[in-house]
Amino acid sequence: MGSLAKATAESSVDQLTILSKAIEEKTQILANKLRAKGLGAPSFQADGLSDFPLNEVDDEAIKVRQEIIALTKELHDLVLGPREWLKTMAWDAISYIPLHAICEFRIAEAVPLSGSITYEELAVKVHRLSGTTIIPSDLRRILRLAITNNMFHEPKIGSVAHNRTSLLLLDDTALANWAAFFTMDMMGPVANTVAAMKKWPGSQEANETGVNITFNHNDSFFDHLQADEALARRYATMLQSHGSREGYDISYTVSGYPWARLGSSTVVDMGGSEGVVSFAVAEQSPQLRFIVQDLAGMRTPEAIDKIPKNLTNRVSLTTHDFFQPQTESADAYLFRHIFHAFSDKYAIDILRALVPALRPGARVIINDIVLPAPGLLSQLEEKSIRTMDVLMKTVCNSREREVDDWRSLFEQADKRFRWQGAWKSSGKLWFIESIWEP
Ligand SMILES: C[S@@+](CC[C@H](N)C(=O)[O-])C[C@H]1O[C@@H](n2cnc3c(N)ncnc32)[C@H](O)[C@@H]1O
């Protein structure tokens, strides 16, 4: 071995010990913090803790935990090595079959809450619950793979029991719907995304996607959802699980923008759904009025009834399709979590539809995801945001955007939009702003 190759070999071995030492040190810090407060750590035992007690520890513990997650992954991947890593990545798709089967055949409901059940007895219960015949040997192979992925356990050979992960499917409806949606409803579209890219290269149309190939129709994803009541319910329920993820809380929309500088103004909350974002900002900004626009389907009498009594004189829920020319001449137009569902072609149409109502100085305030430059975030954070970007391709040919993409969107829509900049709130969403200067 030459000296350079030897040095490289040594430093690659050093990297393993550097990582393991850092993991040990940080785990010690975390364990001390938990012990000091008498807190437990998560466990896969049926009676274990399903979540790290994030709300009960200080900021340093939260940071150290993130670092341990990143470091252990790095060490794991390095010890595996690139060849095995690639093999594992390609092969792991098979692991989604058990999760899909568990959701589809209601297996978590069929396993008793305590004690265990034989695969033969389980087959009878699964048939009763789901109407599908699964032979015991298929149930056994499906669940034994699930067990290797930390779901269920087999306390004695031939009998299966719950563990903490599988119990979550019964305890947490939003999470159960999250698992069901991404397996039962999305595995086909995910598998057909590349076929859609071949069939419709570079498409910006919402009905030329993996969803269309899988279900063989020409509807957009949202029409596809509306056509199937069970699917629409699964989607709406799983969104609660998404919405409750760290960093997406409405409080960041309230605290992340200098609302006070708008003075006594009217804000149009575009695609504002039932108004919860406007309610939250209005509570904190007594000088602001809000007009919440959304499609007619969102304007049920129950939704109108939900306006808090103290806000009825400042917040109104109205109907407007944001592709149609805007009729409300206001000081600001807020778009929270809207544009990432539209390809550039349609996002530009939405911005142009504002123009008839815009008066000089009117602001367009966007609160949405911004893609980071590569390598800026931790690998895990970057993976999460890039997964969302590719998922938008699968679902509707839309996209997440970097700061320059947002800027370009305004430029393409109309040169009279004056770019004000983009900044991150303390949560995960950014604010992106332009002013109308005719
Ligand atoms: C992801 S939700 C965001 C809701 C809200 N802005 C928030 O941040 O919680 C997207 C919203 O856009 C609405 N929407 C979709 N197409 C629309 C259109 N053409 N005109 C107006 N609203 C629309 C939907 O009904 C839905 O309420």
TrEMBL record:
List the GO biological process terms. Answer: methylation
Keywords assigned by UniProt, alphabetized: Methyltransferase, S-adenosyl-L-methionine, Transferase
Q: Where is the O-methyltransferase C-terminal domain?
A: 220-413
Cross-referenced InterPro entries:
COMT-like, COMT_C, SAM-dependent_MTases_sf, WH-like_DNA-bd_sf, WH_DNA-bd_sf
Q: Name one Pfam family in it.
A: Methyltransf_2
Entry's Gene Ontology molecular function annotations: O-methyltransferase activity
Record's PANTHER family? O-METHYLTRANSFERASE ELCB, PUTATIVE (AFU_ORTHOLOGUE AFUA_4G14580)-RELATED
- What name does this protein carry? O-methyltransferase C-terminal domain-containing protein
